[in-house]
Specification:
The protein is built from 7 helices and 8 strands. It is α+β, with helices and mostly antiparallel strands.
Length: 312
């Protein structure tokens, strides 16, 4: 059987049909692109598409080593060498206080200073109308730090011996020990906190009422004193006024090293104050340095005149 030659229209349609079918095949071979722009290559497939137009080459960015950052699950907490004693009843006492029902022991002398009133410079009058804006009595300038406190522990039995537990319970005993019977807690600095204010003061006496409560002072126990609503610290009028804390109020306190004591009125006065002593020692050094310099200038002057007047 003879085949009929293809008509002209058939000859024209066949190439067109091939182009359409070829285009469909090419379209099926191209990677699908999602709405987010991720191609099938992200699923492990690799497709190369040739192009007659070359995009301008862009130099590759240099590799940068980025340090690994670990995001903490909790914020970093501040470190305190000595923990806070919280919610402690504070009562006010003062140098020269006479004995009374709530304070049977007179404060003309302290546990470590037999001439406390004399060394302080007088009566530390607690009457707010008789005190200045510098937290001191108006009648005189204190010879000792007006920011002082008392805690219910004495590390000494007498002026020649310490208590048996002192070396065991006092954290800084070895660092400050000089001889038996000389207190290592006398003059120690504390921070006292009331509300959003913090005051610093020195440990200058023992009380309230007790002198043997090392479990509270250096441990985790609550004050064992039951008088005055279980008071656990005595504060001076200066501490009271700076904090705005009335007698019988509650505060927090903790021991601090001298390097933790921030600037404030507690650094300004007192022969027992290490900051005052440091200032005085610096003044002595500055004065001596000035005198040495003047002496050197006089020597140079005399030498100059000696050399320039020899031939006359």
């Amino acid at each position: 059987m003879l085949l009929k030659p293809a008509s002209c229209s058939t000859v024209i349609l066949l190439p067109a049909l091939c182009l359409v079918l070829g285009g469909m095949g090419l379209a099926q071979s191209l990677p699908k692109v999602s709405a987010s722009g991720a191609s099938a290559a992200s699923q492990g497939k690799t497709t190369t598409v040739a192009s007659n137009t070359k995009a301008p080459s862009t130099p590759a960015a240099p590799a940068v080593n980025v340090p690994r950052i670990n995001t903490p699950t909790m914020p970093r907490m501040g470190y305190a060498k000595y923990p806070w004693k919280t919610d402690i009843v504070a009562t006010v006492f003062w140098v020269g206080e006479a004995p009374a029902e709530n304070n049977p022991t007179p404060n003309d002398k302290s546990s470590w200073d037999t001439e406390w009133v004399k060394n302080f410079g007088g009566y530390d009058d607690p009457d707010p109308t008789k005190r200045g804006t510098n937290f001191c009595p108006l009648a005189f300038t204190p010879g000792l730090n007006p920011f002082y406190i008392a805690l219910p522990y004495n590390d000494c039995l007498d002026y020649n011996s310490h208590k048996d537990e002192a070396s065991r319970v006092i954290p800084w005993f070895k660092q400050k020990f000089t001889r038996s019977g000389r207190s290592v807690v006398h003059g120690q600095w504390l921070a006292i906190r009331y509300g959003n204010r913090v005051c610093y003061a020195q440990w200058e006496d023992c009380g309230p009422f007790l002198t043997d409560d090392h479990e509270y002072v250096f441990g985790n126990a609550r004050p064992k004193n039951t008088s005055n609503n279980g008071a656990g610290i005595d504060i001076s009028p200066a501490v009271r006024d700076y904090l705005g804390l009335r007698s019988g109020g509650r505060c927090d306190w903790r021991f601090v090293d001298v390097t933790e004591v921030t600037a404030g009125p507690w650094r300004n006065l007192g022969a027992n104050n290490p900051f005052v002593r440091a200032q005085q020692q610096q003044k002595v050094r500055d004065t001596q340095s000035t005198m040495d310099r003047l002496q050197e200038l006089r020597r140079l002057r005399d030498e100059y005149f000696k050399q320039n007047s020899g031939g006359r």
